[in-house]
Write a structure and sequence with these properties.
Strand order of the largest sheet of chain B: 10-11-12-9-3-13
Order of helices and strands of chain A: EEEHEEEEEHHEH
Largest interface: A-B, 15 and 21 residues
CATH architecture of chain A: Beta Barrel
Radius of gyration of chain B: 21 Å
Distance between the termini of chain A: 32 Å
Strand content of chain A: 35-45%
Number of strands of chain B: 19
CATH topology of one domain in chain B: Gyrase A, domain 2
Shape of chain B: globular
CATH architecture of one domain in chain B: 2-Layer Sandwich
Oligomer: heterodimer
CATH class of chain A: Mainly Beta
Order of helices and strands of chain B: HHEEHEEHEEEHEEHEEEHEHHHEEEEEE
Radius of gyration of chain A: 13 Å
CATH superfamily of one domain in chain B: Probable tRNA modification gtpase trme, domain 1
Number of helices of chain B: 10
Chain lengths: ~120, ~375
């Protein structure tokens, strides 16, 4: 069973046991506009919560992606290199960025669930 | 997104078309003191491609319009030639020229369009269109340097609408047939739907198109009339920037500023032979010397060889040594990859030269390319 969390930086985490799949929210993808490039973290890299580990670029600007929790990168979505538009088409599915282990599950407690994120993104 | 009302409270100015464009879904952002649409619901990529295949409508009413008025054409033209390196004395009625407002040591304050009115009633008048970001300083500089017989009249009561793209002539033909007889860089006074307009065949996308100057109170009627044609869609500032970058056109304040001369900026083509021989423009001694001896840096097109865009401010290296800087960079939707321009050491300003772009601390391969990235599609008859 997996649980979805969101960060205030508009990332989503699909947590399944001690690993998480991470991307940017559908809301964030809509705000960014057409994604033309994604720079992904290297597999095997150990990261601390808050580290800048990826970059998503739209036609207009570049935005940093921060590690939502501490852990080790276990996979990155190489399909985005040739098809960055997948982030706009399916932000919370095929447009995932990377997978990582969760070193400290207590770091999840500060994150939002679906309902709280819905409130957070409401104007 | 801020509402129009909030924006007014924020002190942002609104062009006569701001409310119309907002009602069409324009996402309004602050831009040089104005609330302007950065994009519409289609998004920058689609807006860009629409302009390259059909016709895009741009509100450029924030730009500075003015008239320089003197007793006769030659007097007015000579007054401007003391400030810019263009040949305005030989402008025929209805002709338009791209030129550069220079500092006393030859730096570029701004670029602008100078047009001689075709109308005999306006003999002795030259029309100027300058960049929004610099209109106050430009106009102050020009006004302070004119001889007593020539004056500057700013035109804050005029709006400016650009329509650009390969289908633009087809859009204009039923509305203003005469305008389609003009070639690139010509202008005329005419009516569109009964509205008095000043129309020039020019723009900032590399495509065929027109810029239409109109009294502010008629701007909405004119825009609505143009948008009635299904070939015409409103386009935001985002696509305006990617279109001009693919076309190799400079953004004033970014791709040059007061620290760059026309020669460094690869804009020597804007200094005609007659001015090179006679001089008499600000910074002439330095610029003429640079024309014969060269400069230490040159503006060039730079193509990143990977997928990562390199934005303005990116350092350019060669074999690990700093050789220049990107001044504009992003993604070219029609080109289909990242595009950039910037300054490099003059000996490297040769197409094919390999460079490295320092993006987020890593060297990304790139090469010098000839501009533009996408062929220009001006109508020359």
């Amino acid at each position: 069973m997996s649980t979805i969390y969101y960060t205030e930086d508009h990332e989503w985490l699909n947590v399944d046991g001690d690993t998480a799949t991470i991307g940017i929210s559908t809301y964030a993808a809509g705000q960014l506009g057409d994604v033309v490039f994604v720079e992904l973290p290297e597999v095997g890299k150990t990261v601390k919560k808050g580290d800048e580990i990826a970059v998503v670029e739209s036609v207009k600007s570049a935005s940093e992606i921060y590690a939502p929790v501490s852990g080790e990168i276990t996979a990155s979505n190489a399909a985005l290199e040739d098809a960055p538009e997948t982030v706009n088409e399916d932000a919370q599915g095929a447009g995932w960025f990377f997978k990582m282990t969760i070193a400290d599950r207590s770091e999840l407690s500060g994150l939002m669930d679906e309902a709280a994120y819905g409130e957070f993104t409401k104007e | 997104m801020l509402s129009g009302h909030m924006m007014q409270n924020d002190g942002l100015k609104r062009t006569p078309l701001a409310s119309l464009l907002e009602s069409l879904g324009g996402k309004m952002v602050p831009f040089v003191g104005y609330a302007m649409p950065v994009q519409f619901p289609d998004g920058i990529l689609k807006e860009h491609k629409w302009t390259r295949t059909n016709c895009g409508l741009f509100d450029v009413s924030h730009m500075g319009q003015a008239f320089v008025v003197g007793p006769d054409h030659e007097t007015t033209a000579r007054a401007l030639e003391a400030l810019m390196p263009g040949n305005f004395v030989d402008l025929k009625p209805g002709q338009q020229r791209y030129s550069l407002l220079l500092t006393d040591d030859g730096g570029i304050m701004d670029d602008l369009m100078v047009t001689r009115s075709i109308h005999p009633h306006f003999e002795g008048w030259l029309m100027l269109v300058v960049n929004a970001a610099f209109k106050e300083v430009d106009f102050a500089q020009i006004a302070s340097r004119l001889p007593t017989s020539v004056r500057l009249e700013t035109a804050p009561d005029r709006a400016l609408i650009a329509i650009q793209g390969p289908k633009t002539a087809a859009v204009m033909a039923p509305l203003c047939d005469d305008s389609c007889d003009m070639v690139f860089m010509q202008s005329m006074a005419s009516k569109i739907g009964g509205i008095d307009c000043h129309i020039s065949r020019s723009g900032y996308t590399g495509e065929d198109g027109f810029e239409i100057s109109v009294k502010s109170e008629y701007a909405n009627d004119l825009a609505r009339l143009l948008l009635k044609n299904k070939l015409v869609k409103p386009i935001g500032l985002g696509a305006r920037d990617s279109l001009r970058l693919e076309a190799g056109l400079c953004l004033s304040g970014h791709d040059f500023d007061e620290t760059r001369t026309p020669v460094e900026a690869s804009l020597s083509w804007a200094i005609p032979k007659v001015r090179r021989e006679a001089g008499g423009f600000p910074g002439a001694a330095r610029i003429l010397r640079e024309l014969s001896e060269g400069t230490t840096q040159k503006r060039v097109g730079i193509k990143p060889l990977g997928r990562a865009p390199a934005r303005g401010g990116t350092q350019v290296h060669q074999d690990g040594v700093f050789v220049g800087e990107i001044t504009s960079g992003g993604f070219g939707p029609t080109f289909g990859g990242p595009v950039a321009m910037g300054y490099v050491r003059a000996d490297l300003a040769v197409p094919g030269t390999k460079l490295e772009l320092m993006v987020r601390g890593k060297a990304h391969p790139a090469e010098v390319v000839k501009l533009p990235f996408v062929p220009q599609n001006y109508y020359r008859g």
